[in-house]
Structure formats: structure tokens, C-alpha cells
Amino acid sequence: MRTIRLALSLVTLLALLLAPTPASARQADKCGGALSIGEIAVCSAIADDQEHVFRLNIRRDADTIYPRLIQSSGNPVSGLIAGPDGEYICGASLYALPCRLGAAGRYTVTVSMAWGSGGNSYRLSVESARTPSSCARLENSFFSFASPGQPGTLPFGAAAACYRFDQPVGSVLYLGDPGGSGETGDVRGQILDARFEPLCSIDFATTCTLTQPGPYRVFMAEAYGNQSDYTLKMARISQSTGCPVSRPTRFGDPGGAAATATVSYSGVSCHKVKAPTAGLVAIRIDPDQDVWWTLYDGAGQQVCAEGYPVQRSCLLPSAGDYTLLVHHAKLWDDPVTYQVAVPAFYAGNGCARRTGTSWDLPALLVHQTSRVQTNCQPIRGAAGDRIITYTAPTVYSEVYAWLVDSTGAEVCPDWTGEDGCVLPADGDYRVLSHLTYWGEQGPDATYRMQVRRLSSPVGCPTRGTGPYGATPVPGGIRCRILDVTAPGSYRVKAVDTENHEIYAQVYDSAGLRVCGSPQCTFEAPGRYTMVLVGSQTGSVIDNDREYATVFLPAVPAGCPSVSDDATQIAAHEGQFGGAGQVQCLELSSPAGAKVVELLPDDATGAGRPEVTVVDSTGTWVCDSSYSLRQASCELSGTAPFFAVYSSGGGYPTGPYSMAFVRVDGAPACPVLPRTAEGTTVDTSADRFAACFAIPAGEHADREVFTIRRTAGTGDATMSVFDGTGVRYCRIPPSFDRTFTCQLPAGPATVVLEADGVDATYQLTHRAA
């Protein structure tokens, strides 16, 4: 006996350390003797080698008891339970763990100090599963969702409280969280079947299926034996009662068919959904971020739940009654008041008038006057049609839209990586939609919608390839048919009337993506469709929004040539006449040469075009975003080379002046004297750049350069290149500046870019 007591003392000590300390016991009421089932024996003192023996009369064979031993904050106390033959069976502990007994008879509970020394006080209580001290009956009305539940109070030190009930085998119960009062209240329970075997635990909110016959018993206990109030709730989900009735509604505003309810923290509310037929429905709840829901059939089996398998529809397998449970989902305990509607996707009641899928139709304006409304827009389609839907709220919100067939089944539930949805057969289809966020929209929220056919589209204006230098004519409608007469690469771009680019995507005749702007390669001739932001289904572009279409072969043609002679820098002057105009120049430099683009230093707007250099195949070589302006551009590829350029966004029209100068090899420019006077340069509107050479033997490793304006107005910049065309130094715009440049051996080239105004500059250089 002593060995067993010492072995159990460690378990008892751990329970003591983890459990809250109960209040000090009163003067000893009972420290041994007969102990009735359900009685709480209070003993104020036990010390050293004392043993308090309690006699327990068990009246039924194979009983299960719940012994609880609560001790104060002194030395550990142990409680050992022995059978009629004196053999140890189990121990009494703080947690009232179940203990299975053998034959009926007299059992003993021996309480002693676990280590045989020290002292403490304790409370002892034992409850029985087969012959409980009392067991309240739960009537059938208790299992209604309208029932407030069964309140109860567990006294300090009580082992458990018993309830009994009967329900049909297979019933599914919703077990609510029983809660618990006070800071330490933690009430839990267990349901036993007719064999007194555990069926389900009552802890957090969950469901329980009565898989074994009853009658059933429920034992509730506070985890640490503290006094606590609780509420037992076990509403029946199968053949549920006490739930307000909801019926499948029409599309559009459900009106009075939408139900309003409030769910409390850690609580649940229910709705009885009476379905007249099998089919697809939706569960529309607002605010859906504050609750989550589950739908059960009449047998209590889950049919669908929020997010499983998909949130937007739920298949009712048959006509009949269903139970919708709505759970509180917030992290705080404020009650949530919500609305719920169950639109019938299998019917077409409430749908709008059928619309076409031509791109030249005006955008639809859809009204939503209820937070739980689902709108329906019918269309007619043929097998193989690829349909895409664009939506956009009129004020800040989000729109959710998807395509279904006449039964309400989603046509394209899986993402394919392509845009739009392919119709499997000829017939009637519907676009279902609703706002996902109400925002500050008032009683009538609206959003716009475009339902369009990507494959073999109709209603799109046609564009052929235009010549370089031509100004495209702006027009409306979101798409363009591009008439490709020969395979190859093309410039494809859309710009608004202010010359801001609008990203576009290009599709083939089947509605499959081919490329995106600004450059496309077509493998075969044919008719292709360019759509403004084609993949962005959260955008609507009205027909009256005008834009220009750039559709040009990647290899320029009809381009005037421009000299690269640095000795006489020849500026090319021109004018941009409108949005989308693309111009070109043929460069005279051979393959392998390095060139830079020169501009008037004060050029702005259209005077600073966006330039791209391509070779004779249309392959990109460099552009003005870096190489042409910040370093130098090596002409790689096959000559001849072309500068293709257009005005930047916000500048559809305006004049420009530019030059392209070769900066590699032996410079043919006039020599910049290495004297105190150096040289002078006169600049003007049509002569804004100049070039000078420094022979290999006329500069040090570190050379000091000075640029000073001696007459006129404006600023200038100066760049220094080595013999390979690498830009080594560049100063920002200035009218008087001295700077040091580290140069490699060999000749160097100095290039001046001045404002396009009359001025005179003095340039000098010397060893650092």
C-alpha cells in the first residue's frame, strides 16, 4: 500500500501545482466513515502518518465512479480506492477522472499524506454513473433551438452533476459551450450511452451523433472542482425544432424573405430552410465576416458550410427541411445581428432581361437594394463561346460575379490560366453577381457590368497596320480587331487622348491570350482582338472612353535618315500631331558603333520623346531610359538601325529636336585646346550641341574640365567619353562649373548639350 501511495504522490503533486488553490476548508465535518454517493466530505486537518478511511457502498456491478479529492496549499495528499477484497483499483484526484469498478459491494477510499509527513486539509466527493446521487431529466423541449438550455450550479468540491435523456438513435445534437462562472470556471461534460460508455464530450461548441441506443446520461463537472454556474445546451440538429423558417427566394431583392437574427458570443442561431425541390441555392449572409454557417439535412448530416466546398452555392440533394446554423465568429463578445437569404439558383425568378455579348453594347447598371441580394443576368451562348464578365462598383466596394448554367451550376469552377469561361453547350446561361462589401452606398448600391464574348467577337472596330509617322484616329469601345496580314512582330499599344498608355492584351479567334502590349508576335495571319486591360475583370471601360490604337510592324519603314557626324551635329526637328503617333529615323552608324542621343538641355514634354533603337529585324537594342541618355548604346544586331520614338504620357502634341552622335573610335571633332583660353561655343535653338576631341597625348589620368557661360542665357551639360564610347563623366546642368574626370589612356571625346537658346560657353581642360 505504501509503495502505491508513493507512486501516485507525484501525479497528485503535479495536479496540485497546476490546479488553482481552493479556499481553506472549514472545521472538519467528516474525516472518514461512511461516504454517500454525491456527498462532499470536508476535512480540515490530516497530518503525518494519519489515514482517513471512507466507506463507499456501490450497488451496481461494473459501475463507473468519478472521485474528486481537493486539497489545500499544504503538503500533498493522496486518495487510494480499494475494492471489497482490499486490492487497489484507482486513485482520487483533483480532476475526478473516471474509475471503472468491478462487482457491487463496499469500497474504501483511504486519504493520507502522500509522503507520510506534513499536514493539509481536503474535500472528498464521489459520483456514480449507474446509481448517481440525483439525475435530472431533460424533456424533449430541451432539445429545441428555442430552449434557453438547462442552467446548473456545481458546488465547490462536487465530483459531477447528472442528467438523463432519451432521443432516437442516430440523432445529431449541437453541443453548446457550457461556459463557467468566475475567473476559474471551466465546466465540461460527457454523454454516456445505455452501456455507460462515452459517446461525446461537451466542451467547446461541437456536434454529437448518438450512434448507440439510450437512455443516455450526461455528467457535468468543473475541471478543478471549483464552484461554478453553467448552462447545458444540446439542441437537436436532426429534425430540428425551434428555428424560424426561411424559404428559397428569387433573384434580386429578397424583401421580406430575408431573415434577421442575432447570435451571441460563443452561441449559435438557427434557421429552418424549407426547400420545395432539390437544386442549387446560396447562403447569403451579411455581415459574413462576423459569422460562419453550416447547413444540415433533415438527418443532421452536413450538406455544405461556408467555404466548403465553395461558398457561393450549395446543392440541396432533395426537397425537404434543412437546418442552417449560424455561429458567432468575432474575437470579442459583442452579439452580431445579421441578415440571411437563400436565393434559389435552380430557378430564374427575378433575373433581369437577357443581354447580348457584343462589345459595342453599353455597360449594364446593376442595382442592389439589399445586403443579401444576388442579381441574375441571363445571356444566350453557343458551345465553345468564351465569355468574360467585367464589373466595377460605382463607389468603393467589390463585386463578385460568376457564370452559371440554367440549373445554377458554375460553368467554370476551376482556374485554367486563361481569361473568360468556355460554354460547354448551346443554351441559356446566367451571370450571377453581388457586392461583397457594402461600403457607404446608401439604400441603392449600384455597379456596372459588361458581359462580352472573347472568341470571334462582334462589335469591335477593325484596325490595319498604319505607317510610321501617321496619327491614329481615336475611338471608343473597349476592343479592336487587329487585321494581321503577315506573321511577325508588331507594335501594339493603346493610349488615351492624353497619350497615357492603357495596358492591353491580345487574343486569338478562340479567345486565348496571345500577348500583351506594347509588342506582339503573331505566328499566323488572321484577325486578333486587342482588349484594354483584358484580364482585369474588376474594371469596366465605357464605350465613350476614346483611345488611339498603335498597330505597326516591328521593322520600321519609310524612315528619314539622320547623320551621326560629330563634327557637324545635325539636329532632326519634328512635330507630334496627336496621341499614339510613332515616328522613326534611320541611323547611319554601322553595327558595333556606339551612339548617344542628344537633346536641348531645356527640352520638356514632347521635346523629350521616348526612344527605342531596333535593328533591321525589329529586335530591341537599347532605349532612352538608360543607354541612349545615361551611358552609350552599342548597336548590336544587323544594320540598318532605327530610332523609333513617340511622345510621353500627357504630351500628345508638340515639337521636338534631337540628334544621334557616334562617340566610339578616333574622334573627328575639333580639338579642345589644352590652354587657359580653351575654346568657345555659340549655341542657339537649332544648334544646341557641340563635340570636341582630346588626342591621346593631351590629357592626364585625372583631368580638370571647366564649362562657363560667357554670354546669353541658359545652362549646359558636358559629357566625356573614352575611345571605346564609354561615358566616363557627366555634369548636371550648369552655367559655371569645374569638375575632375578620371580617364583611361587614349583619345577622348567631349560633348556639350546646351539649352535651346542663344548663348556662348567657354570650355577648358588641364591636368588635375
TrEMBL record:
Signal peptide limits? 1-25
Q: Which domain of life is it from?
A: Bacteria
Keywords attached to this entry: Signal
The name under which this protein is listed is Ig-like domain-containing protein
UniProt organism field: Phytohabitans suffuscus
